[in-house]
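Structure request: Proline dehydrogenase, Emiliania huxleyi.
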Amino acid sequence: CYGRERPNPRHLDMLVAPPVWTARGLAALSSPRLAQSAAVLHLCGNRLLVNGAVALLRAASSRPAAGLPLLWAMKQTAFRHFTAGESLADVRAAAATLAPAGVRMIVDHSTEESEAADARQANLRAKVALLGKLRAELAGECVFVPIKLTALASPTLLERLTVGAGRLGGGGGGGGGGCPE
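Returned structure:
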């Protein structure tokens, strides 16, 4: 549930995995991979470092040739920690490694690059194609695929629906707040 209001504690219970799930997932990783993950997570806890890295990445993406070394370094460290890879083959390999420990995947492949009205049909076709590939190649391992609704429908319409749902659910309906329980 997203919005300006504080989350309902009942919703937070769903976000915390039981320790046994975490232990099973971590058991699938090698010791060097665990050490790398611990280091990346520790570094991500430093707000100054994270803000600096974000600024560097923005600068690198605005000057691709000059930023290649930084982008390469990010791919070798943080990117590998937070993603399964850049291709479906990479995702399949990660799934094969993690599946024996009972870990399944959330595939978040951004097929919705543009929110412009003229891009919505192409975004929808790309997302449907992705879902078809995942069904064919990762049906047992992929449990969730997020969809960016603002790339498939008018953001204005979605905002109106959110306000209306908030009013119906008693969440205040002030535009971005209420989550019906």
